[in-house]
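I have been asked to look over a protein record a colleague put together. The record follows directly below this note.
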Amino acid sequence: MTPTKEYNLVIVDDHFLVADSLKMLIGMFSGYNVMYHAKNGYDLQQKMISETTTPDVILLDVNMPVMNGYDTMEWLAAEHPEIKVLALSMDDDESMVLKMLSKGANGYLLKDIHPEALKIALNEVMEKGYYHSDKVAVTLLNSLKPKEEIPTIHLKENELKFLQLSCSELTYNEIAERMFLSPKTIDNYRGDLFKRFHVKNRVGLVIFGLRNKLIFI
């Protein structure tokens, strides 16, 4: 899968060698332009203020001084929800993965990822809005184990159908076509369910639906 347009990308990592290596690697991928490198979340904020072009996707290190990946992700989710974010870390601890995803990250990658896998991750997050490796998928499934009594939740038929289709690889526009509804109506379903379930992204929505046995895969 090759991007049909060129996406602007930013790398946020306090290790310059890692950032330079990523920049060189991504420079070999068609469809991506590395705009700049920021050394932490605060540095990213300052550079985004001075830049006229907003990035389409950010590779975000989790462990950084001054402003770490968690705080940076919270800021991005609040101020720039349109930007796709792939978290980067050397640590595959389940709590770290879930924390970054719950704060709005569109995927979680380990820094020892194979170059081809990184390319796939970038393409999928721009095409589908999310990317999850097998490791992250297992982490998400483990998180579905019930820890408390499941409350009774009532959804309308179309809301349930939308929630079920959100488990698939369909984009929101494709879900709209499948349900014979307008993209605007699907956006309304998504926004309403995000608010009702207190989630920030599609991953959180699906996890909530599975955990509360509203949908099945």
